Amino acid sequence: MGRSASPKPIQLRHGVLSITGNFRKNNEDSAFVDPDGRFFVVADGMGGQAAGEKASAMAVEMIPEALVAKLDFKRAGKETVSALLDRAVAEANAEIMAAGALDPEQNQMGTTVVFLVAAGGLLHVGGVGDSRVYLLRDGQLRQLTTDHSLVQALVEAGTIKPEEAATHRYKNVLYRYLGSKEGGQGACVKALEPRRGDRFLLCSDGVTDGLDGDPLRELLRSQADPQAAAEAVVQAAQDGGSKDNITCLIVDVA
């Protein structure tokens, strides 16, 4: 008997768009796509002057550099990938803190970061701050990351209800981000078995400030092409009144 054909390798297709939006003077978000399609990163900077831009740019430069230099994308096991991502995030956090300490105008700078990394046959997602990774699978949208925000901590403690979080006065207050003492405490990495048809959304909170829940899910379901989907999500968030920079990076498993 002849051998059965080996399964076709999974391919990742992406679409990305980042805009300043209607309410900000400059874009402090950053996005990075590995030229070989192995990993994807989104960061949302914060701080006075151009500090947020610098912090997010440092995150999407340093973390990819660490991955390219140290990760065996074909053979690395789940624990190895998780440890390397934690270390890369911690090193970026330390560099951002150091850069902020050197320049008085940038001493409050920081950034969120989220990522998706294809390695060892799995997809690894995680991050620090309140940028998010979602998975659309079988028509259902699920948030894979947990916000490191004061409001999310209040929800988890039972102090406020989830539906109160979106309008809470502390909704933009983070207790962990790159550039903070707590920023190097791990990236909460999760590993998933990819399925063809999966669609991942990596986004800054500018997306969810103007678009969330069922409308976001329906929009992601309605656009087959990842670039068209990214553009549609950004437009809908802007039309929905988002007051922040808006960055959307979509990754499809084909």
From TrEMBL:
Residue ranges annotated for the PPM-type phosphatase domain, each copy included: 13-253
UniProtKB keywords: Hydrolase
Listed GO MF terms: protein serine/threonine phosphatase activity
Protein name per UniProt: Serine/threonine phosphatase stp
Matches recorded under PROSITE patterns: PPM_2
This protein's record includes keyword Hydrolase: yes
EC number(s) stated in the UniProt entry for this protein: 3.1.3.16
